[in-house]
Amino acid sequence: MTRRNIVAILRGVTPDSVTQIASVLIAAGITKIEVPLNSPDPLLSIAQLAQQFGDDALIGAGTVLSEQEVAQVAAAGGRLIVSPDTNPAVVAATKAAGLLAYPGAMTPSECFSALRAGADGLKLFPGSLIGPDGLRAIRAVLPVGTEVLAVGGAGPENFAAWRAAGADGFGIGTALFRPGDTAATVAGNAAAVVQAYDAAYG
Length: 202
Known about the structure:
Blueprint: E1 6-9, H1 18-28, E2 32-36, H2 42-53, E3 58-62, H3 67-76, E4 80-82, H4 88-96, E5 100-102, E6 104-105, H5 108-117, E7 122-124, H6 127-139, E8 148-151, H7 159-165, E9 169-172, H8 183-201
Parallel strand pairs: 1-2, 1-9, 2-3, 3-4, 4-5, 6-7, 7-8, 8-9
C-alpha cells in the first residue's frame, strides 16, 4: 500500500465517531492520523484508534504543549507527537518516550532549535503565512534530508506548488474533516486529497 505523507488532523472529533472516521481515511490511503488535544476526550479517541488501527496506521496527538501531555499520549498508545510550537523540552520528552516528534516551526531559528532538540521532522506552521516561497528560502539552509510538513494553508489546490518548494508532505485539517462531518463526507474529502497528492507526488 502506498504510504502517503499526509497527516489527517481530526480537530474536534469525538470518541463515538473517531473510529468510523479513521476507517474511511485509512481505506482512502491516508494512514497517519492525529487527534488534537483540544478535541473532546482526545486521549480516549487516541486509545481507541491505537487499539483498532495501530498496526495499520500511525496514530498520535496534535496540539501537544507539555511533557505531561506527551506521557499521557504515550500511555494511550499514540506514537506521533505534533505541536504548534517549538518546545525543546517537549521534543526531548517525546524522544525519551520513543515517539515521533514533529514540532511546529515558522522561522529558521525555530527550525534549527527543533532539529537540535531531536525532532524527527518539522511542522511548517502556519503554512499560509510562510507560503511555498518562504519554504524554498528556508530549505536552502536546512540540513539535507530534513522532513518538512506544510500545515495550515496547504491543500489539494496547492500541493504541486508546495512540492516544488520542497515540502515532503502535509498536515490536513478542515479539507478532510470538520466537526459533525459524516464518514461519507470524510471519505469524499479523502478521495479528493489523495487524488491531488498523487498527482503532485506521483
